[in-house]
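Bumping my old thread because nobody answered last time. Still need a sequence for this structure:
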């Protein structure tokens, strides 16, 4: 029997409110430290992060507290990042973002559609599960696995909204689909568990560890 795999989807800490690949703020540093402290007492096996600076900086705090190296995976990049399209104003970026959220198959002039973003994360999760199946079959490790993924709020909701039935999502927040862009605070933790051939959503956007 395959080991249980628990995946913690962590949104990056509060970032600088400006264009480009920005760092986290001093307030974000505190958030990241508290998140790292939360994971420090847990048996974390793998840490993955988006290549964007706000995610890698957040992940590094978790890495320090768990003594697990951060691996960068470009499939964890946000659907789109302000600054990727030269000359795009913030208002134009928000308009593009909102259209992508409302129309999951709309492909913007820069970045991915919401469904394409979902497929990226789904691909990564499938690879992680496949690796665990191989490990289990070879008898290398009989323990359950815990994986921390530091990524972006948009990618998290793109995955959830395009993977789970709306009725399941509404158990965590009423009108999940229409309000998804406001539902994932910085450094919140969303927990997925893989058992019996599929992932289930067991916790969404938890922030208790930040208090």
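Sorry it took so long. Here it is:
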């Amino acid at each position: 029997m395959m080991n249980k795999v628990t995946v913690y989807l962590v949104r990056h800490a509060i970032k600088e409110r400006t264009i480009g690949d920005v760092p986290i703020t001093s307030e974000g540093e505190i958030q990241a430290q508290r998140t790292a402290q939360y994971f420090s007492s847990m048996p974390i096996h793998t840490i993955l992060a988006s290549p964007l600076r706000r995610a890698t900086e957040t992940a590094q705090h978790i890495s320090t507290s768990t003594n697990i190296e951060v691996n960068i995976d470009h499939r964890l990049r946000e659907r789109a990042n302000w600054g990727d399209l030269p000359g795009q104003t913030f208002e134009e970026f928000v308009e593009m973002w909102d259209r992508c959220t409302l129309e999951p198959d709309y492909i913007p002039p820069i970045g991915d559609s919401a469904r394409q973003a979902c497929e990226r994360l789904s691909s990564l999760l499938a690879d992680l599960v496949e690796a665990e199946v191989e490990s289990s079959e070879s008898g290398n490790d009989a323990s359950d696995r815990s994986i921390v993924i530091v990524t972006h709020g948009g990618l998290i909701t793109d995955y959830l909204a395009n993977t789970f039935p709306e009725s399941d999502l509404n158990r965590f927040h009423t009108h999940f689909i229409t309000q998804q862009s406001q539902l994932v605070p910085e450094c919140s933790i969303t927990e997925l568990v893989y058992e019996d051939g599929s992932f289930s959503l067991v916790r969404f956007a938890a922030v208790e560890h930040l208090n």
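Residues 5-79+114-210 form a domain with the Rossmann fold fold (CATH 3.40.50.1240). Let me know if any region looks off to you.
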